[in-house]
Design brief:
Number of helices: 10
Number of strands: 10
Number of domains: 2
Shape: globular
Strand content: 15-25%
Order of helices and strands: HEHHEEHHEHEEHEHEHEEH
Structural class: alpha+beta
């Protein structure tokens, strides 16, 4: 069978997973993309990976983002032609498709690649990991309204016989204070995940998020991402389930069993003035343990 000059054959086994990762990450570095593929069935030797990636770039299925790198590695994003190819293989997304007028903006680059770093830490652990990216979460919300929020990811991990399902949010920068009240209320209505974990670049930002999003009836945990990279389930986290700092693993156990050390499910919702109260021990003496 002859093919038109300049055309390429897209492999279901290798090219489609590669295109899917680029789409779902929005922006991804060359090294991250290689590592994501290595953790899946599509194991490619470096030379074959480089050849396939370069071919997809050359034929405008994937684009290189000029002027941006991540740890010295080029940054890639999906092109409309790549989205069209994915759709021909049954991979359609309502929030990022071939007719999308506004493709991912370069201002999202740092958030996207740092979120993928978190994913790779999870995939490199001994746990079985399921990762539903924001592109798929947001699409599902448009179709079914499954989740209360378009989370950065919905994650499933297995530690021993225990399976934990949680929403992951990577908060790289702080929003205006008034934007957090609607988020707090939506989190309280969330029923599809056991808990929500907020990761941040710094401990200071984690503290500020804790102030904005608690008290809350949904189990929430807050931690700087650099601690998670080193300690995984042993990572100390601030949480609304206890006045004491606990490990992330203990937080998941408590959240999955519905245990809370607070006397009230409302977690000290108001003081005499009707203002939200944050447990002071977490923001003072207890936090010194994790600094």
């Amino acid at each position: 069978m002859r093919y038109a000059r300049g055309s390429i054959i897209i492999s279901d086994a290798f090219d489609v997973p590669l295109l899917l990762h680029v789409r779902n990450c929005r922006f991804v570095s060359r090294s991250q993309l290689f590592n994501l593929l290595q953790y899946e069935a599509a194991h490619l030797p470096p030379s074959s990976y480089t050849a396939r990636l370069n071919r997809l770039v050359r034929h405008d299925y994937i684009r290189i983002l000029s002027g941006h790198t991540h740890r010295g590695s080029a940054i890639y994003s999906i092109a409309p032609k790549g989205l069209l190819e994915l759709e021909s293989h049954g991979e359609f997304s309502l929030v990022l498709h071939s007719q999308t007028r506004h493709m991912p903006h370069p201002l999202q680059v740092h958030h996207c690649v740092e979120l993928t770093d978190i994913r790779l830490v999870l995939m490199g652990s001994s746990w079985a990991v399921g990762w539903k990216p924001e592109v798929e979460v947001a699409s599902e919300n448009l179709i079914r309204g499954t989740y209360q929020k378009d989370y950065d990811a919905v994650v499933r991990i297995q530690s021993g016989q225990q399976i934990y399902k949680f929403a992951l949010e990577y908060e790289r920068t702080l929003k205006a204070a008034q934007r957090y009240l609607p988020i707090l209320l939506r989190l309280q209505e969330e029923r599809q995940v056991q808990s929500v974990v907020y990761m941040t670049p710094s401990l200071r930002l984690a503290k500020l998020l804790f102030r904005h999003l608690t008290p809350n009836t949904k189990p929430l945990a807050f931690t700087p991402v650099y601690r998670f990279r080193l300690q995984l389930l042993a990572t100390p986290v601030m949480t609304n389930l206890s006045d004491e700092v606990m490990s992330l693993g203990n937080f998941f156990d408590s959240a999955s069993s519905g245990i809370s050390s607070f006397a009230s499910a409302q977690f000290r919702l108001a003081d005499n003035r009707g203002d939200a109260v944050t447990p002071v021990s977490i923001l003072s003496s207890d936090l010194r343990r994790v600094q």
